[in-house]
């Protein structure tokens, strides 16, 4: 009897627990979609690597970690880091002009040098470098004035801090297992700094780095995330908090195939370095930056493009020019960029594309000069109401080939693009459809009717 009762109880409870589980997970999904919305729509962010490494123009933090310079010589750069031409208003205007909707700034890189007047530790731009200033607060103020979203980069490793495990690739101070108290004292310092950043600047996004040095348990990643979410449930985390992030961060290597993850952001150098290096002149051209940007958004990602201010706070002219050129192109083509979704497969169009939110407009990005002034679109089952050049308005002629009445194959559309409408970078074509896009993906058979 007892058994039957238990069985009945299980039968009675099971569907309820499954459906409540489903409700919870669908609620979580809705929360996630809402939280990630601004990020998904933003498409472009500007990354800023600014630190004492810009004085000698050597690689950020890694130069002493890998033994190219001693730690004490590396730290001599503190005397040259003067920030005397630092103009955060100009920085924020440039970021806005580039068309970026958010920025991520290195508040502290692996070398442990902080850009704000932290109460915790004394390696920072207020106490220990020539600048003698909190450099972060005025930047945040200008970014907020522009209505841009704010991301704070924070390195989990701090190779200069006395209680951090690693000093260089050869010098390890201690092992966590053997000295958990010392590790805890490092975590306290880290948590104090992060709470300070959280309460002062209320970032929209945390961009962690360096999680590879320890596992999530040692970093206390889960606890850290919970703490930073307190009062700020909508704050976004990049993936470098071990497995606790909201989105993936491929670095420099642009994904060849569309990543399977829903949210991702490609972080990219403007030349070959993150920090300012006067010897690095291997700048990408505006065309190449736009190539990367278009490729990224057509695959549903964001581009986080890095700039590297000099030690006096000025932004190298070359970098300014690239951002302005990118900004001009973004402005002209904004409808094809912001808030769009990833595009269609290359089987339908030989090039990158995006889709409007309602999927009723398809944007085709044309890099080269089209042969015979035409581009080709295949297997779109919708009626095309109109095709026009984005940012220019010219309505384009279309020709439909291979459309027969006896099957549903939608045919091949040739779209004519007059030479004079071509953009110096990418020309963008809007294809306005009668309803959300329907891609034809069946094989066609023999003619059975004629
Ligand atoms: C890397 C490097 C670092 C750079 C960062 C940017 O993880 O350690 O120097 O700041 O990526 O994505």
Short description:
This protein is of the alpha/beta class and 450 residues long. The protein has helices at 2-42, 53-56, 62-65, 71-75, 88-98, 136-145, 180-201, 216-219, 221-229, 286-298, 317-332, 334-337; strands at 44-48, 102-108, 149-155, 205-209, 236-237, 265-268, 302-307, 341-342, 353-355, 361-366, 374-378, 384-389, 398-401, 412-416, 427-433. The radius of gyration is 26 Å and the shape is globular.
Question: Could you characterize the architecture of this molecule?
Answer:
By secondary structure, the chain is α/β, with parallel strands linked by helices. The chain has helices spanning 2-42, 53-56, 62-65, 71-75, 88-98, 136-145, 180-201, 216-219, 221-229, 286-298, 317-332, 334-337; strands at residues 44-48, 102-108, 149-155, 205-209, 236-237, 265-268, 302-307, 341-342, 353-355, 361-366, 374-378, 384-389, 398-401, 412-416, 427-433. It is globular, with a radius of gyration of 26 Å. Residues 49, 60, 209, 251, 267, 274 line the site of alpha-D-glucopyranose.
